[in-house]
Predict the 3D structure of the following.
Amino acid sequence: MLETMDILKERLKEKGSKLTPQRRATLNIIMENKGEHLNTEEIYELVRKDCPEIGLATVYRTLQLLEEMDIISRINLDDGCSRYEIKTGDEDHQHHHLICQGCNKIIEVKIDLLDDLEKEIEKEYDFDIKDHKLKFFGLCSDCKHK
Amino acid sequence: MLETMDILKERLKEKGSKLTPQRRATLNIIMENKGEHLNTEEIYELVRKDCPEIGLATVYRTLQLLEEMDIISRINLDDGCSRYEIKTGDEDHQHHHLICQGCNKIIEVKIDLLDDLEKEIEKEYDFDIKDHKLKFFGLCSDCKHK
DNA sequence: TCTCAATTAATAATTATTTTCATACCTTAG
DNA sequence: CTAAGGTATGAAAATAATTATTAATTGAGA
Ligand SMILES: [Zn+2]
Ligand SMILES: [Zn+2]
Ligand SMILES: [Zn+2]
Ligand SMILES: [Zn+2]
């Protein structure tokens, strides 16, 4: 927990920015909710408990910043808003998501077997791949069996 | 071209809906622009040439409908709006997209090698996969070499 | 042709997000 | 200590994409 905060502080300093209480509180909430996929409004409500005076615009600004700093990543689940999750540095790429069309549950997939596919595409299309995003849609175990 | 229109008519009828001139014109524009990834506003502007009285809200509704009918698919390129393209029935899943972070060009990837990965996930997570969406981010040939 | 639900255009309303702006807060030079 | 210059903030206004409302129109089947 401390480590990520220190990384943020470091990267902010490089950019001439500061680690403010609002930014600290926002990052803390996202770290405490690892595995959730909170949207901006939800993050705002949670941060307000620690930091009641914070404004929604600041949360938006902070999330943008944290994404630029490569601390969190934005997820688009086609539900009309952006969601965020902490980036765990130990993964090469991010994990992926299974989205249940029955109950809207989100399941995280740890497997990442796109390396071969990426290599093939890089050669075939002369394209330098930096990252990818992959979502699967379907029915979860519960929804399938009823 | 005729075929897709007939499929739409068929599916609409099943649902008790009608194939109106507005819907026909919208689908035509999307079919004529295969390979493009038009957003709603762009589709609206193009449809207006054939069908000047059409309203933007109708285009929104029609695109929603065409997506439900599995005739077109929505693409999210994180540029703040939805884009659409015709679904070519001869592909098992859809093709994927390479998004250049240098010039925002979109390149279509015909390769789809996710079948093995899907099987593995279906077993591991007891999840029934219906579809997937995959995007790659990086630098295109032009942007890479300059 | 007649009937009626489906559809539409125009408009207003929503929703998520961004921008504006005046103020507050630091850090540093004088 | 105090002023200057920069960053950050909250509140409110502005934007942009999308959806809801409503009253009028249309088109397919009897
Ligand atoms: Zn489910
Ligand atoms: Zn996740
Ligand atoms: Zn490029
Ligand atoms: Zn495409």
